[in-house]
Amino acid sequence: MLSALRTLAAEPPTLDGEGRDTRWPDLTNAVHWLVDDTLWDLVDPATSIGTILRNGHEADVIREIVTAVVAVSERQGTMASDATWFGDSGWCEVRRLAANALNRLTG
């Protein structure tokens, strides 16, 4: 999860010739790890307290970043290019919330 948050918090990378993120984890995997693999888009992150998350404060910051990522996904679609996601009007907010989540989880 921390690796996914680092990817989301970082400046958008230089993309390859097909408009894809070449980092590891790349944008696609970061979203999968944070949203799809945890099901936090369907269940409250608070259900992960004691297993993945330590407390309600961590659940709160994760809830915020997941909501922001899902909003980008709903606007752009899951099959949109990485360039399209990085260009979304809400991407700066995703980055800010991911950085905040990293600070709260590792600080």
From TrEMBL:
Highest taxon, organism lineage: Bacteria
InterPro entries: DUF7945
A Pfam family: DUF7945
NCBIfam families referenced in this protein's UniProt entry, alphabetically: SCO4402_fam
UniProt-recorded name of the protein: Uncharacterized protein
Lineage of origin: Bacteria, Bacillati, Actinomycetota, Actinomycetes, Pseudonocardiales
